Amino acid sequence: MLEQRYRWKNKQLREHVAVLDGKFPPNILLTNARYLNPTFRKWIEANIWIYDDRIVYVGDMTPENLTDCEVIDCSDYYLVPGYIEPHAHPFQLYNPQTFSAYASKYGTTTLINDNLMLFLQMENKKAFSLLKELRNLPGTMYWWCRFDAQTEIMNEESVFSHSNVKAWLEHDAVLQGGELTGWPKLMAGDDMMLHWIQEAKRMRKQIEGHFPGASEKTLAKMRLFGADCDHEAMTGKEVLSRLLQGYTVSLRNSSIRPDLPNLLQEILEFDIENFDKFFYTTDGSPPSFYEDGVIDKMIKIAIEAGVPLVDAYNMGTINAAKYYNIEYLHGSIATGRVANINFLEDINNPTPVSVLAKGKWIKRGGESAGFESEFNWTQHDFGPLQLDWDISMDDLQFSMPFGIEMLNDVITKPFSISTDLSFDTLSTNHDESFLMMIDRNGKWRINTVIKGFANSLGGFASSYSNTGDIVLIGKNKEDMLQAFYRMKELGGGIVVAEKGEIVYEMPLLLNGLMSEKPLEELIREENELKRILKERGYKFNDPIYTLLFFSSTHLPYIRITPKGMYDVMNKNVLFPSIMR
């Protein structure tokens, strides 16, 4: 399915029409269905005919041909469209297939995904082959096209070449350019990025911003450059300023920015009565954040905040579909749309008891419907991480005059190191630890000290990071080495070692970046990791995002990147990485 340029072939379209003429029976007939109609903004009762992955009719008629048709009386349910997550980062320990499978069970059947990890890890030909196969899953996936690496990498000009970016922009599964984490370069005169924005607009594709704390003037300038939406509003006033500059606003509720309840309260205080320019995002949170839902959880927050019921659902469905110009396929229960339908027992509880995704039962009566899609990652060159190099005590030499201090989960600033680093073990009386980032190919390393991560962590190793390079943290160099070698033996992952023992491990067997396990298992593993780190002094909430953003230069103030220790505000390398 979907191996051609168009959603349905001519032959399939003829079959869809033939169902209405009784030549073919629908696969599923939903009778007495009360569904939310976004045009009339109310619940309407109808019969819904589904053939393969498409809704072929919504109205009062019943099919002439019901041979082998599954007929379901929906009198006890309220039907709403499948929810849309418009800003997914589907590589946060989970992978696109497992996240889509999990999200679908909670009614989020369409994802619009970040392509950064694919851009950095794969050639375009292989990446596009992966996108093609992912289209066959029950959940629907679309993609963005990044314009920058979100960090300082060695070969950014060749990775983010014009030909690479343009090929992604032209792909029919790509709906937008961005997010623009590198917008300061654009403001400073980067005409190549501006050209890519122009190309995206020429193709009628959207541009997603990334403008935390932006002034009114900056928002206006970025709107002139072509930005259409921003998800970084953290207050009602910031929401209002974006609306006034003509933006669509993606209201965020994520693990590091759980802002939605306050945003909605302040939006309502501003007497904003039109919600058509809003939709929701969870902004790629780690597995444990999704323990009680995805977009359904956000709709419930909106209902409880006093948002009109229809608008609360529209922000999770039709608003995003209209914005991305996919309303003809998604966002409503109407003739011609993809058969993504959520069955609710209570209109005030958006978590569905049953879910249809592309006309297949994903969940039924509160239980998994037994349709578990398999995905072969090995044929796309995703397998255990192979490291053909070693590290030794010689690599664990620390002499930098300043280190990195954590202000919260993701913001770091420089601090002067006064601790004697000549010993192999640091005291547990303070919260300073050795920190090393090392190239996944073993070519370079950066050694410094991190303050605030933990005060009694022996050794920690992670192949999960923004760049895919290896992060080592710890008080004891022997424990750090042991954690590294166990991580290497696993084929990638996150490992904690202490006093010669491995006390925790999370295998990430898809290139050391993602797990093939279902989210239910990853949630348990991540919660256990957080427990272990908190016992050893981690005082924040999200260690996964801490790891991800160590090298992310779209956040202040200091980062470790493949090029070295990087000053974000002054845009220069303070200490270059050391070649091995």
Automatic annotation (TrEMBL):
Catalytic activity: adenine + H2O + H(+) = hypoxanthine + NH4(+)
Keywords for this protein: Hydrolase
Keyword Ribosomal protein listed: no
Cross-referenced Pfam families: Adenine_deam_C (PF13382), Amidohydro_1 (PF01979)
Enzyme Commission designation: 3.5.4.2
Listed GO MF terms: adenine deaminase activity
Keyword Acyltransferase among UniProt keywords: no
InterPro entries: Adenine_deam_C, Amidohydro-rel, Metal-dep_hydrolase_composite, Metal_Hydrolase
Adenine deaminase C-terminal domain mapped to chain residues: 426-571
Transmembrane portions of the chain: none
SUPFAM superfamilies the record matches: Composite domain of metallo-dependent hydrolases, Metallo-dependent hydrolases
Domain Amidohydrolase-related: 78-361
Family the entry assigns: Belongs to the metallo-dependent hydrolases superfamily. Adenine deaminase family.
Protein name: adenine deaminase
Organism: Peribacillus deserti
Source organism phylogeny: Bacteria, Bacillati, Bacillota, Bacilli, Bacillales
